[in-house]
Specification:
35% of the residues lie in helices and 27% in strands. By secondary structure, it is an alpha+beta fold. It has one domain. It has a four-stranded antiparallel beta sheet with strand order 1-7-6-2. The longest helix has 35 residues. It is globular and about 60 Å long. It comes from Methanosarcina lacustris Z-7289. This is Mobile element protein.
């Protein structure tokens, strides 16, 4: 037996989610402003003195923002996830800078720090398995969302639910763990999907399927 992580996607509209997605954007931008200001201060310090200043990460952001209007506009665990996703974006940026310093030819230009979300835009929401649950095939959200979604999932170990703004709809990604028998997994059979611009996707495999 093996434990695998899978995702089910559902397209849906919801006004209550729209309000929270805007609040997520507000918190993201507020936190991003704090990190960006420290980044530019540290960059100036390094240029002038060669010293490296300390960055601001999740724990500091949480302490600074937990009592603000932007943070409290979201369920606590969802707000925490916004800050953690922002931290992840900045760490990816710094990692890219290190690669750029050694191999600039791999890039079209110097990597840029995470940008602000559009003032009228929205940002991803993440609900943990302590906030959501699946009961008899129905995905239930916290009361603040006021939403229930029908899903084909029943006996699974729910990890989290991601709500991703997508034009005038939202993509709900239900991330879950499931135990499958070993004979359901064949690591020698590889199937790849590459989303495209003109074509929906390019699909290839190593076992001759059409």
């Amino acid at each position: 037996m093996a434990l695998v992580t899978r995702t089910e996607q559902i397209q849906f509209k919801s006004n209550s989610v729209s309000v929270l997605a805007q609040a997520s954007k507000n918190l993201f931008n507020t936190a991003n402003y704090i990190i960006r200001q420290r980044f530019f201060e540290n960059d100036k310090l390094y240029q002038e003195t060669g010293e490296k200043g300390e960055g601001i990460w999740y724990k500091q952001l949480y302490s600074m923002l937990k009592n603000t209007e932007q943070y409290r506009a979201l369920p606590a665990q969802t707000a925490q996830q916004v800050l953690k996703l922002l931290e992840k974006s900045w760490k990816s940026f710094f990692k890219a800078l290190k690669v750029y310093a050694k191999s600039p030819e791999l890039f079209l230009g110097r990597p840029k720090p995470p940008k602000y979300k559009h003032k009228d835009g929205e940002h991803i929401l993440v609900f943990t398995n302590q906030q959501c649950k699946i009961v008899n095939g129905i995905l239930k959200f916290p009361n603040v969302v006021n939403l229930k979604l029908k899903t084909r999932l029943v006996d699974v170990d729910l990890r989290e639910v991601r709500v991703i703004p997508n034009a005038n709809k939202y993509t709900y990604e239900i991330v879950y763990d499931k135990t499958v028998s070993d004979n359901e997994i064949n690591s020698s059979r590889v199937f790849g999907i590459d989303p495209g611009v003109r074509n929906i996707a390019t699909i290839a495999n190593n076992f001759g399927a059409k």
